Amino acid sequence: MEKYLNYIDGEWCEPSTGKFAPVVNPANGKTLGEVAQSAEPDLDRAVQAAKSAQSVWRLVPAPERANYLYKVGELLKQRKEQIARTLTSEMGKVIDEARGEVQEAIDMAFYMAGEGRRQFGDTVPSELQNKFAMSIRVPVGIAGLITPWNFPIAIASWKSLPALVTGNAVIWKPATETPATACAFVKIYEEAGLPKGLVNLVHGSGSVIGEAMVEHPGIGLISFTGSNEVGRKINERAGGLLKRTSLEMGGKNAVIVMDDADLDLAVDGILWGAFGTSGQRCTATSRVIVHKKIKDALEEKLIRRTAELKIGDGLDETVAVGPVINTEALNRIHQYVETGKKEGARLLTGGRILPGKGYYYAPTVFTDVSPEMVIAQEEIFGPVVSIIPVASLEEAIVVNNSVTFGLSSGIFTKDVNKAFQAMRDLDTGIVYINAGTTGAEIHLPFGGTKGTGNGHRDSGPAALDVYTEWKAVYVDFSGKLQRAQIDNN
């Protein structure tokens, strides 16, 4: 039985508790191995190791730190297929998606390595003679990373790579469902030669290790991706401790399909957004806001194409939709479907748990959904999409913005004026024109408005703001005491 261990101070080690939990392949229910269930003493060891390592790492020139990230990127390229297959086995997404996710980590490694030479500050004119003024970035210290199971290496790369290149040490608590992918990533950091203690992996539950990370005085910031409920609790507690938080907490994303849209292209985007990763994406297309004039035509195409999707083990190259993560997810998704029926939404296809081994839910489409229904407001995190009819772009934008989340949105239209109106008025952090709601690239900021987050962003240069503090520096070479503001009066 494979054991997925902690990695603390450069050593793979068992948890202080001696306890492990099973790791299950969602495609067939088979046990893949056991993951460590750590406790606070394990976290304390990791913090001490990180503190010691970071005191040295912060003094390493950023371009030299970046060289390690280039090595990480090269190693990820070499291990891409191996990691992708591991990821599919424990998470369930189809193998092409898993390869794409590993590629995202590769891209992030090379991008953030480039930031080793681009951690720009500002130089500004001083109001006084013979005085120089500038701002520089400095690391926060120790970054606590809490990541989900649906993108077990991509999201970890979004967080750990910018943290490292800006001079921080990392303590990472991955999801208990996907420890093999986490271990594979950390082994690459290890092989790249990063100093011991700089990257620490502590497996365990959110209620034990996650909460301990938030409470620990040695951890300067928490970067969290997960549910809104948990993110709010983290923010409340960390705020009381004056601790920095970066939160990405899901979405209720919509595609708008106008009456001039290319319907085949729109259906392609909806299928990929709604049923890719079995709907288990924070950017999943959960709503389709469609103009009444083309609603029937869109539904006909969507139902036909949905019926053609092959469902099964993601390691089968011909499969389009894999399993959901576990039994709890199956039951939650089905409860939402039953709620939709009770609310009066009309079920076009799907709506059932599929028989056999593994955790499979049939791709599901509702229509005649009103914007205030539960299935149109709450994040389902499964292969369920709701069709909402509207009479105009203006109404579509109101419906899009009526939810508490604001991560991603898309619009299909051939009218450039409508496209620019949507770009301006859709209240989401990401907007796609003639594409679905998923497909973010690593060199632009990732995150959203309202209940999706707290204003920070993963990816792109904006990610550097999460892991650095600003320091203002004044150099007076006048040879005398000059008092700002006062001397100018």
From TrEMBL:
Q: Which portions of this protein are annotated as coiled-coil regions?
A: none
Q: Give the InterPro entries listed for this entry.
A: Ald_DH/histidinol_DH (IPR016161), Ald_DH_C (IPR016163), Ald_DH_CS_CYS (IPR016160), Ald_DH_CS_GLU (IPR029510), Ald_DH_N (IPR016162), Aldehyde_DH_dom (IPR015590), ALDH7A1-like (IPR044638)
Q: Which UniProt keywords apply?
A: NAD, Oxidoreductase
Do the record's keywords include Ribonucleoprotein? no
Q: Which GO terms label this protein's molecular function in UniProt?
A: aldehyde dehydrogenase (NAD+) activity
Which reaction is the catalytic activity of this chain? (2S)-3-sulfolactaldehyde + NAD(+) + H2O = (2S)-3-sulfolactate + NADH + 2 H(+)
Specify the Aldehyde dehydrogenase domain's residue ranges.
12-473
Q: Which positions are catalytic residues?
A: E248
Enzyme Commission number(s): 1.2.1.3, 1.2.1.97
Instruction: Give the record's subunit note.
Output: Homotetramer.
Q: Which family does it belong to?
A: Belongs to the aldehyde dehydrogenase family.
Q: What does this protein do?
A: Part of the sulfo-TAL (or sulfo-SFT) pathway, a D-sulfoquinovose degradation pathway that produces sulfolactate (SL). Catalyzes the oxidation of 3-sulfolactaldehyde (SLA) to sulfolactate (SL).
| Protein name (database record) | 3-sulfolactaldehyde dehydrogenase
What is the protein's species of origin?
Heyndrickxia coagulans (Weizmannia coagulans)
